[in-house]
Amino acid sequence: MSEAAAVETHEHEIHDQLEPSLTPGNLGKLGMWTFLAGDAMTFGAAIAAYGALRIDNPNWPTPADFLGITTTAIMTFILICSSVTMVEALGAIQTGRMSAYRGFMALTVLGGLIFLGMQAFEWHHLIEIKGMSIKVSLFDATFFILTGFHGCHVFGGVVYNGVLLIRGMTGKLTQSKAHLVEVAGLYWHFVDLVWILIFTFIYLI
Amino acid sequence: MTTQAAVSGHEAAHSGPSYIAVFIYLAILTAIELVVYAAGLPQVAKVGLLVALAWAKAVLVAMYFMHLAMERKALAIVALTPVILVTFLCFMLLPDLTTRMWTRYDHPRPVTSAEMSANPVAPPPMQTP
Prior knowledge:
The complex is a heterodimer.
Chain A: H1 3-18, H2 24-56, H3 69-94, H4 98-129, H5 138-169, H6 178-204
Helix pairs in contact in A: 2-5, 2-6, 3-4, 3-6, 4-5, 5-6
Chain B: H1 2-14, H2 19-38, H3 43-65, H4 73-106, H5 113-118
Helix pairs in contact in B: 2-3
């Protein structure tokens, strides 16, 4: 090998170390992280607006007078549990344990469905029994917009994970495509992360 | 190299922390949140503790469930960007909020005779710009 060729090879190696090629796996992760950064801005702006409206309004009601803290704490716990089953599903498919993958992914979808069911129950109670409505007050409007927007994300995550579960059951998703589950996991954990903040800022404070 | 890059995240996931341990931490932090909420602390202490606990939980989820602790640093930049921008957003809201609060408390709007006759014991209405 000539000296020039050796130098060129060395430069390629350095380039690869500094900037590895974009594979479907890390390209998907980068894409999802970029999407989540934008989504986080939306949630962040909504929570900041909630805080600004609340600070600016001395007659703001105490959320606990209207909202069920115990129910919501259980919802938080269920979402955290579903995050654990999601990482276990990822670990299972990465090691080729497809049966475990299907079980953990089914539990993740179930956790999302239970969360949505409890949120529907909570909304029904607040609207029908306590008379809350998006038109009644700023507190009601911000509460329904924030929790509703998050609920839409949970619904999207249930559909997303449900598709991956079905593909796993029909044999279309295998160990070689584990990166798809990793990307879906990022989305699901983000939904969990946002709920942790909403639970604190909207319900507890 | 390409394959190595693709696999690195998977290996990190396998050799990562015990997810059950992270789950237990999250459950304990949630329980502490409920205790702080019900403890009847002064409002400032309560809000400060609850916000700190919420951020601790959020960081745990991001670092371990979302594998940020095991990923390359470039992804952390993407993840931190909205946090920095939302912090700036909060600071940008402060001048407006403080101005409105100052106006409300230092220059209360005079009560009109109609308002006084409608409810003579009610406190003066708040200034609404």
